[in-house]
């Protein structure tokens, strides 16, 4: 398994029976689900990261296969840039749907990897731990990744914040960065059902310094949801639910069918 670094002194953390500790004596308890909290100050602030409602809704929605077209392409592209024994790090991993799909694809190709996931939401990592016990999971910020220099071979960053400096630091020379962004029309049908004046997403504009673009492709599909549960889960897993008035929420939650485009931009970069 990949080694984590102490967030205080940057020494390697070694696993004890129920905790991780470094040579300088800093100690971090392992949660019973297997993740470790490495946020400075413990990351105990209420509402830190995605909450339980959002995580459960997203887990249920993704398990329904509604974004399977994206997961399949991410897994296929990732498998072309990973070798046996490599370290795969998912930054802003959520409940691990995409990175576990990548791991499955690699295993089918006979490639065993060290899978790691970082997120600021403990609820998300708990859900991740239900998908696999064979992953290194840590509550940590994208701006301070608890991994050594040049220790990662593939870095996944899907719908999550970026930190170009940290990505460059942890990726090995020639390592691969795979990013996914929502395109302009993504979920426009949902927005049209909720808002009087729906708006498109800004076009993705990400050109990280120190990387060259290897590949760019778009994944588009019309999604038709025919159950109130699926509609609710889609709404609850997005930031729109939390930023929408109760009156506008009720517009969507009263629907029994929803048709909306889903659209994703996949960007594959190589570290120079």
Q: What's the shape? A: globular
**What is the number of helical segments per DSSP (H or I, 4+ residues)?**
9
Helix- and strand-based class?
alpha/beta
The fraction of residues in strands falls at: 25-35%
CATH fold-level assignment: Rossmann fold
Run of helices and strands: EEEEHHEHEHEEHEHEHHHE
CATH class: Alpha Beta
Written overview of the protein:
The chain has 272 residues and is an alpha/beta fold. It has a single domain (35-271), classed as Rossmann fold, CATH 3.40.50. 30% of the residues lie in helices and 27% in strands. The strands form two sheets. Strands 4-7-6-5-8-9-11-10 form an eight-stranded mixed sheet, sandwiched between helices. The protein has a three-stranded antiparallel sheet with strand order 1-2-3, with no helix packed on it. Helix 3 links the parallel strand 5 and strand 6. Helix 1 (52-63) crosses helix 7 (228-236) and helix 2 (68-79) packs across helix 3 (97-108). It is globular. Mean pLDDT is 95; it is low at 43-47.
